[in-house]
Amino acid sequence: MLHTSLLQLLDEPVANAHGVRLLLWRDDLVNPDLPGNKARKLKYNLAAARAQGHHTLLTFGGAYSNHIAAVAAAGRLLGFRTIGLIRGEEPVAGSMLNPTLVRAAADGMALHYLDRAAYRRRAEPAFIAEQLARFGPAYVLPEGGTNDLALPGCAELVAEIRQQIDFDALAVAVGTGGTLAGLLTGLAGQRHAVGVAALKKGEFLRAEIDALTQATAGQTFGNYSLQTEYHFGGYAKYSAELLAFIQQIKVRHGVLLDPIYTGKLLFGVLDLVGKGYFRRGSTVVAIHTGGQQAWAGWEERFEARG
């Protein structure tokens, strides 16, 4: 097993058989306090919040959200007050929060809950204005942390990888599209990018990605594909096959993937390799964007189901 800085060679039979050099970029190891792509998405947003004189961050997310966990941690580390508007019903008095929300609360985040109807309005300016009237002035971060300021931090990853290796393609999991859009701006039309959608019916993400790069770089890019067949039933859905694959990768390479994003990413990349998607002789770098914090809640749900 070869480690070069944050690059890890994945000696996988299917990659070897098809002449593809497959590596994993361990972005989950860059910042232990704020691991993975969430720190990159927050970098310039937090700078903007400071510049605008804000002391509070307000954001949205599900009960197991990596983004919620990251914003809460950023608040603790950098001295921001944080407010999380969580999708779902408020836990009844005396019931336990899941591990993600326990950690967020311990990091100082004030948790409030939105029913499904209210949560669907989370991007509406009038709804956001209502929340600011309720909670006071705050820098508002969208669900998943994806906005125009998220892209530059993700774009910097391209140069970091290039310092270590010359590659033919980058591959990343896609939830909101922000990380892939950032990579595309960093690639600037050179080399190829592959996005593996983590949610069902993910074709709509193509328009989201193109809108983000247009707003940030002034153009859209054609040097990427969006793979929508590896969602395993939808966002946060899973199968025995996916869980077995994640365990296999952990045993073979000592890498813990997560079941929501990176497990689906690497499963998809290896399937694409087997189908001849990447030409023989290619160097492909899959990006581990973190997300391991989700495992505590995931395992809790399994145990609850018996």
TrEMBL record:
Cofactor(s) needed: pyridoxal 5'-phosphate
Database matches in PANTHER family: 1-AMINOCYCLOPROPANE-1-CARBOXYLATE DEAMINASE-RELATED
Organism domain of life: Bacteria
Family statement: Belongs to the ACC deaminase/D-cysteine desulfhydrase family.
Domain Tryptophan synthase beta chain-like PALP: start-end pairs: 14-290
The name this protein goes by in its record: 1-aminocyclopropane-1-carboxylate deaminase/D-cysteine desulfhydrase-like pyridoxal-dependent ACC family enzyme
InterPro entries according to UniProt: ACCD_DCysDesulf, TrpB-like_PALP, TrpB-like_PALP_sf
